[in-house]
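Ticket #4471: structure output looks truncated?

Reporter: J.K.
Steps to reproduce: submitted the chain below (527 residues) through the standard prediction queue, then opened the result file.
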Amino acid sequence: MAAIKPSVPKGTRDFSPAEMVKRNYIFDTIKSVFRKYGYQQIETPTMENLSTLTGKYGDEGDKLIFKVLDSGDFLSSVKEKYDVIDGFLTEFSKNAYQAATIEGNEPKYWVSWGQKFDQLKNDWNSGKITPRKVFEDIDIQEFELNYYKIDVKKLGLDSKKLTSQISEKALRYDLTVPFARYVVMHQNEITMPFKRFQVQPVWRADRPQKGRYREFYQCDADVVGSSSLLNEAEFIMIYDEALSNLGLKDFTIKINNRKILSGIAEIIGKPELIIDMTVAIDKLDKIGLDGVVNELLTKGFVQDDIDKLEPIILLKGTNYEKLHKLRTVLAGSETGLKGCHELEEIFEYINNCKLQRATLELDITLARGLNYYTGAIFEVKTNEAAMGSIGGGGRYDDLTGMFGLKGLTGAGISFGADRIYDVLQELNLFPEGSNQTTKVLICTFDKGGEIYALPLLQQLRAESVNAELYPSGTKINKQFDYANKKNIPYVIVIGSDEIESGHLTFKNMTSGEQEKLTVNQILVKVK
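Returned output as attached by the reporter:
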């Protein structure tokens, strides 16, 4: 068997023990804050039914869903069906023009079919279409089927059946939609309002780049069954506390409201283009005002619309000053004014709490790409490192309605753990010793030393001290090298002299200091 060059798929990574210590530091810090605010942990499967995920993230999001190919012997039969289609198209394309001479058929009809199948064959060969499209877009009439002796139904090539055979499942794109599905399935078992958190990986078929991976972890907190804006205020406090606990000193929590964006679309007379408008203005910080204007002009907006929109998206001032200006601009939109009122209520809650380090900013250009948001929306960015958003979320009024449970409002936020990791690494914010997995290494010279060391090893572990016993038979210098490579701060050396005296050699691997101590003295040092 030929040797295989080891590799991982693009956009995925291995994590070393040292990296896992740091990642768990992030997860544990965030989880502790979630629990403090009354959130309970759940987990959902890696795979969801494809129908559960599609249609929830917009057209762009749907393109990034990793579909799972069903396994089994059917794959060989599907290939046979593909081959049959390929042969059919080749044969039909070659003979379609000759068919024009068949008695009783109109030449124009067959010439048009010939041209149609020539194009179909070209598209098939170039990979532009699938077998499903062959039978969706081309009405193969009974005459042609009989003429080429092809029974579509017998082959199982109808579009729905073929699609379901190929893929019925997908890797989850986020944790919110699976959570909505969970709520509906377990609605009789949970207490409303239901506050849950989840820390699990998600997958997106995106182009890998710095801070953007195809497999990454999300740390989500959601609450359903409560329309109170206190939930949104608490999300701001959760972001502030968790990121402050992780050592970030300068970060901004941006907030907006989808109702305000809808109101803006209404007052410029383009409510049907709300999605195009939000997608464009959400790019303001990336492509600038000119880029946003150019994109809007290609999406059906005219210069008069731009003139109305430009002063809104360039609003300056404090949060309350922006709200005051928005109320004036949105005076003719009930939806927009409701969005302003909701933001004002959230600000009122926050004014009665003291944020540690976060800056709360009303950003009219914040749109968030996910279509299910209906109220307040959030995005968090650090001002200390060049990185995209490290968190985001918002209010969704009827996400569970897609699964049959109507009228259940919810809201949630997510921490981008992988991006937070990169930021903490860049800023050197991981606590000292965060790359340690073992605190004490016991080194011995022979089997007798190992036997003597075992009760001490148990004592250390009973006191919640991470400890290892290095197998004897290796030179002491190599045992010390092992401790240094694993960043183990303390080493206990047990030889015949130590066993006889009861005073063990205790070495600080950082300072190099070495002393003789009793077991009890050692326990005091390392606890």
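Triage note (M.O.): checked the attachment and the full token line is present. Residues 27-60+172-426 form a domain with the BirA Bifunctional Protein; domain 2 fold (CATH 3.30.930.10).
Status: closed, working as intended.
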